[in-house]
Design a protein that fits this description.
Layout: H1 11-23, H2 35-54, H3 57-62, H4 64-88, H5 97-105, H6 108-123, H7 130-133, H8 136-146, H9 150-162, H10 164-189, H11 194-197, H12 200-211, H13 224-261
Helix pairs in contact: 1-4, 2-4, 2-8, 4-6, 10-12, 10-13
Amino acid sequence: MQPSDSQKTSPYEGWRRRLYLMLEPTARDSPGLSITNRLIAVLIIFATALTILETEPVVRALAPSAFVTAEAALALAFLVEYVARVIAAGEDPRYRGLAGRLRFMVSPWAIIDLLAILPFFLTMGAVNAFALRLLKLIRLLRLARLGRFSNAIGDLYQAVRGRRYELTVSLMVAVALLIVTSSVIYVLEASHQPETFGSIPRALWWSVATLTTVGYGDVTPVTAAGQLFAGLTAIVGIGMIAMRPASWRQLQRCHAETSGAG
């Protein structure tokens, strides 16, 4: 029995279906990424490395034309990928027709892809949109989520979600300590070092470096009271790091008891 004309698949629809299977990880029956998506992932990593190296004048001066050529080639490759994804989106019932394609183009992943390539073509490479091109790295997270790393990412999410109460309390304590210590050091040192401790926001940098026990040394108190308080702040920071595992366990027990009582 011959299929009717309405049931026949046009060459365009068949080509679009194959394109969709190559580009959309969720459409594959087998686990992992297609060869096309693996190639895209490699290009994203290469483009990111190139963008980072390009910010070093010494490296760029070695072969400036090579960077321009590579940037143009990568922008063209990502443009082809973007157009292919817009075309292939028609296989998804949500994005069929002109209205559906426009809806796909304003979806978060499509906007990320467009922002990563648009500056190059609008300025013909005159503007180095470093931050926007790094947005392509976000797509790697999506590809990894749907590839062989999905279980590891899922485990990481569950671990963080399981500790969300302890993490929230720790964050609140850290923010409170930052505000308190920066306020105190501001009172003690502002009149002596207005450039570095002249406001609480300026003093925040000192609090971050001291409480995390990094101690860059670029900003230090000069008064006796300020130095004494700096020592106490450093001790508190060390204590926070040392007590964190035990305090998390205690917080978890208290939270479980409170939830059970409620």
